[in-house]
Amino acid sequence: MEFSKKLVSAIILSSGAMALESELYDLSIEQLLNIDVSVASKQKVSLADAPGVISVYTKRDIENLGYYTIRDLASITPGFSSASIYAGQNNLMVRGQRVEGFDNNKVLVLLDGIPLNHLRNGRAPIDTDMSLIGVEKIEFLKGPGSALYGTGAFFGVINITTLKKGKGSHSEAQFFGGSHSSHGAMGFSAFGNDEIEGRVRFAQYSQDPTGEIYGYKSGTQSYEHSKTRTNHGFDTVADSHSDALIKIKKGALKNLSIGYIQNKNEHGTFENSSDYNAYTYEFVTSSFYGKYQKEINEKLSIDSYLRYSESIEEGNRYSYNFVFKGYDGQVEAKYDLNEKMNFVFGTSFDYRFLADNSSGTKQGNGQGSNAFVERGSGPLRTYAGYGQLSGSLNLGKGLLYTVGLRFDEVNSDYAEASKLSPRISLIQKLSDRWNAKLLFSSALRSPDLKSTLINAGVVEEGNSLKQSKLNAETANSYEFGMTYTAATYSSSLSLFHTIIKDALNRRTFDTKNSYRNDSGETVSQGAEFEFKYFPVKKWHIFFNGSYAKARLDKLSQESDISGQDVAGAPRVMANIGTHYQFNKLQLTLVGKYLDEFRSDDQDQRDNGYFLMDLNTRYNYTDNLFLSFKVLNLVKRDVRVPSFQEQYYPQTIHLGAGYRF
Question: What kind and span of H or E run contains 70?
């Protein structure tokens, strides 16, 4: 709290410069439709020329939509969706695939190139523990990304780029409150002069239980057990995040940046909790890092970082407090071979371990298959080297190619994996407006500390494992896409086929749940499309959708589910929205449709549902604005299969913001 107070003071005391208008606001409509992205290649290219299937949201989009979390944006992104599970915890689903449990560990999230995922289980911060205030743009890369980013970039990569201010200063603060006793504050400050530049961001959000749980007895904080699952509870939330960065522009330390990031997520209580204010789980990750970027000459540039991190997971339900520490770093170089060809290459390391000050290592009373002990001092080590060649050939209107390869080696006492992750991208320019994309990419997700330490605990208690050493799960994805960009609208279509092998899952063996690689494969295939239209610059219309079918094929160890669909993920998604600015009043309306969820027992598909969101903003002055937002405008009671918790309970927020 003390650090957040200091950040608020920094915003309030900033010099009263004119409000910063991001360069994105000055772009033409055609430029807005084909914004530069970097997540698929680690270098800026236009969206149509990017070697990947990407959806991007700018600062302008985020403000118009009134969405300030990754989860909110994922819910309207083709190929992505999210589900509420386990008492207020949310998971991402990508292309028909979902994560078992609430680890949410198969999408890599980056903030200005720094990974944000939790050290223990790889959990990605997608809620108000990573607000999007002060963000220039956020990119969603769908499909494997390990050839560039290594283990963890399994289903996709989300890349957040913050606003920069070379000279002068700009600050903004927002406050809001509403339904379910929810309230929050967020702000940022960007500043710069000839010697330094930097930024500060913060956010805090809390919410009481919505009371929208099946079987919940209003006012009693208890359940009718016949109407709810035993693992469900109140969706209480208390999140916060803060980050800061200072870049030195002169002197001996020129081009060196020093940064700090903290994400904190507290959520939920279960049915046996007597006090719903005692949060069931708390996840905290804090990182200190140094970053060095420099153009050596006209052809060669380097980008590197070194970081120390600490992650905490505390479970009040089971009275444990795990502390994990880690060191990771990367050195990357880009060399321009000529005007049409460049080479990106680098190396990275990651070293993480369970700290000595962890406590309460047992779940529950230690009895039963789901009880676990996390023990063992063995660290998890990852080393990698990678390279990527990009260029163009004079074939037709131009052929863009990208060829990349990455090698990752992972080892610990209970895991061992060495994998090559290749990628190939061919983009044929058919005309000034049409592009055709042919993509192949691969990925791995290595065992994490959670899986290796749980397996160590199983052995320490005298039980046996199905596998003595865990291997990495792998994914291969084949994609074909078309893009079209005109003066006032753009459209894209992509087809994908993804094969996942050796999936890491937790299964019962020798009376205890332990981790192992399932044999066989999961096959996901489908299509995605996206359409954006600007009749005029102040009026924006978008429409997108996706179809994804994921099946569990050839599973010998789990023959009872072989051939079944992946449960708990939708097949069909469609989103439509419009934004219009009436002088000082801005209005945005979004409709979201999901259908064909498969339940765990495979007996039924849940009916589809349609939700609407409304966001309005009134610019009272050039600096002061008022906002009114409603999530789930029609107040539909929609339940996500497998978990039966409400998908976006109706929430109404009134807010105000001021730009300094």
Answer: helix 70-74
> How many structural domains does the chain have?
1
Residue 337: C-alpha distances to residues 123, 134, 142, 228, 341 (Å) = 38, 36, 29, 62, 5
Concatenated DSSP letters of 414-470 = TEEEEEEEEEEEEEEE-SSSEEEEEEEEEEEE---HHHHHHHHHHHHTT---S-SSB
| Per-residue pLDDT tens over the stretch 48-59 | 999 999 999 999
Give dist(CA 198, CA 188) in Å, integer.
11
How, if at all, do strands 156-162 and 107-111 pair? parallel
Alpha-carbon distance of 43 to 36, in angstroms, equals 9
Radius of gyration of the chain (CA): 24
- Each residue's pLDDT tens digit, 190-202: 999 999 999 999 9
What is the residue type of 374? E
Interatomic CA distance for residues 503 and 500, integer angstroms = 7
Burial of 462 (0-12, 13-18, 19+ CB in 10 A): exposed
CA distance 205 to 223: 26
At 159-176, the pLDDT tens digits run 999 998 878 889 999 999
Please give the residue range of the domain that contains residue 559: 2-659
Q: The domain spanning residue 634 has which CATH number?
A: 2.40.170.20
Q: Which residue has the tokens 């192949």?
A: 440
354 in Cβ contact with 374 (< 8 Å): yes
Q: What does the mean pLDDT of the chain come to?
A: 84
